[in-house]
Structure formats: structure tokens, C-alpha cells
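idk why but the lab printer keeps eating my pages so im just putting this in chat instead. protein + adenosine monophosphate:
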Amino acid sequence: MDKFNFAGSKAFVRVDFNVPLDENFNITDDTRIRAAIPTLKKIINDGGSVIIGSHLGRPKGVTDKYSLKHIVGRVSELLGVEVQFANDCIGQEAKDKSAALKPGQALLLENLRFYAEEEGKPRLADDVTDEEKAAAKKAVKESQKGFTKTLASFATVYVNDAFGTAHRAHASTALIADYFDAEHKLFGYLMEKEVVAVEKVMKDTARPFTAIMGGSKVSSKIEIIENLLTKVDNLIVAGGMTYTFIKALGGKIGTSICEDDKLDLAISLIEKAKANNVNLVMAVDAKIADDFNNNANTQFVAVNEIPDNWMGLDIGPKTEVIFADVIKKSKTILWNGPTGVFEFENFAHGSLSVAEAIVAATANGAFSLVGGGDSVACVNKFGVADKVSYVSTGGGALLELIEGKVLPGIEAIRGY
Ligand code: AMP
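predcted complex ->
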């Protein structure tokens, strides 16, 4: 971005303006819009014009509820430029308005996902036959080419700043890049920052490298854990998934969350850690509750001695010390998922202690990346987002990068 001079260019910028709206279409959190502003401003300040493309929600067709017209006012406000709007992302209005754009002007296109061609997936009723499905799939893939080409025709340069959708091979996130030569497609600032941060963790790793994996279920994190076991020095297993491991090891977990069909997997992950010389760190004590409720009765017990009818909802004080000790000695830290039900005030302390240890390690020179949904909510809740090295904006995209996958949105631009 810094090297490219956008003067006289028309840039198609794919952003992620998938913001939450209330029932009156007020934006309840504009973080994602703010995140794309530096890229849009740079283009405008250079003397270029921008055509902004985004999705909003998961519409099944054209729906007022998911119209980007609801957010155009806020985008104008944050950008400091009156942003025009085209009611249809590839219609005549979009063509005319993008053709008429002057340097310094901006146009927001209607929700790209109003067209099935954006995702390249047909929208079918449940009762269609397999043949009909296959035919519809082929048809949408065919018409996707025209859709992508039309979007590309509006611009002279393509900028992808939508890290949140970088794991999707959609028309505007990846396929469109084919219509621009290598000098005319680039990452926006946000995308660039995300890629640099993840590569700092996964590729140029300063050691020791510690990953803290929390959250509710081991099943949603299997591929990540397997990939991390080939990369980390320490893997801290926390949150609800702890109890699947503890049960697999023969412990008593009461009514704690557990995936009984993943006990063998838990054992194989433990063995893999051993084989790879990874220090697998698990809780030794738990804060347990007699109900899934912030005001439940609580006590601290050994993590493998949870009485019947009690459940582990957070780590205990001994575990906090063990986790903090490992984290503070680390030079690279990745945190994904809380240590407990942090949404309940009485079960947030473990996650807070992890956040504090990460802050201390970061102050001491470690590189810390926090990402993937709930741990981002944690650092925001605890007010420490600016005291870690990087907070990722990408949920699924970040997790796939950590799984070791090549993301279509990244590959489309730089070729790997
Ligand atoms: P995930 O989306 O898999 O990262 O999981 C995040 C969710 O896990 C949060 O909503 C937490 O409340 C929940 N969670 C963490 N620890 C536990 C636990 N011990 N029991 C039940 N849920 C938990």
C-alpha cells in the first residue's frame, strides 16, 4: 500500500463491512468499518477514487435487512468524504457511477451477496434432486465469471482489505484478482497487518512459542491443535475442552462439558505432543459450579476430582499460576479461546489472569497475537487490547491460517 501511488487510479476495494445492526438498522459496533478506513483514505489522499465492495450478513437474495444502504452514512462520516451508493453491485447504476467517479470520490456498492455469484453457490430449495443441484451449481459457476468480470471492469486496481473473508474463494475476495496484473493487485493495510502478524507467529517464530487454546469444544479446534503440535514449545489446553482430556485420562469431571466421542482423539493428541516434545500444559484445579449460572454455588477442586452434579466453569488459582508462569517465559504467544465461561463475571478470573500474563510477557518483549472470536472479546472486556502485540479481526480466516492452510484471498494476490 505504501509503495503504490493511487493518483488517477480507480480502486476496487473489497472490505469487510459485515457489521452488526440493531432492529432500526443502527450500527451497534463499527470496528470493521474503522479497520478499513486507513486503506480507503490512502487511496483518496493519493488522488485515486474508490469503489467499495462488501457483504453484509448471509442474505438468500435481495433483502432490505441486509442492504448496505444502512451503513453508507457512517462510512461517509468515518472516511470524511460523501460516499455515493449504487443500489445493485453490478447493475447499470453501478457501472455509470463507477465510470463517473472523480479523483477523491468514493462509491459503495450494494451487498455483493445479493448475488449467488459472489459465493458461487446456488441457492436451492431443500427438495431439489441431486441432478438439479449439480446443474444449478454448474450454472452459477458459469455466471460467476460474468459477475466477476463486471466488478473488475469498474476499476484499474484491485485491493483486498477483507481479511475476515480471506479464507473464501469468492468472486470479490479471490477470483477478481485474475483480471489484474501483478502490479495492480495488492493487500490493503488491514490485510497486510494480519498476514504479517500471523507469519510472525507461525513462520518467523521467536522461541519459546506458547499457544493457549481455550473455548468450549475440542472438536472445533482439532486441526488447529494438530498443526500447532508441530510448531509450539508449549500448548496450554484450557476452557471447556479440558474436561474431554481429563475424562480421557480417567478423571472425574461431574457434569462438565465433554465430548465423549472425542476421548480417543484427546489421547492421541496427548501422545502426539509427547512425540513432538511439546510441553502440553493442562489445568490442575478448577472453579466448579452446581449450576450453569453466574450465581451458582462454587468451590475450587482438583480438576480430575469434580463431584457428581458439579461442573468446571473456569480454571482454579493453582492453574492460573502454572499458566502464567509458562506464558511469562515465552517469546511468541498465540491466544485463542477463554479459559472458562468468561461471560459470567464469577468465571472470568482465569481468562483475566491469562490476559494479564500475556500483557506482562508482551511488555517483556514477546510477540503476542490474540484472535478467533471470544479471546478478542476477552481482551476488550479486560481493557488490554492495546497491551498485546496484535488483536486479529479475522475469525475463521485466522483459524485457517493457524491450521496451516493457504487462504484463497491471500494466494490470489501474492501467489502463495
Ligand atoms: P469457542 O467459541 O469454542 O472459542 O468457545 C468459547 C466459549 O466457550 C465461550 O462462550 C465460553 O463461555 C465457553 N466455555 C469456556 N469454558 C467453558 C466451560 N468450562 N464450560 C462451558 N463452556 C465453556
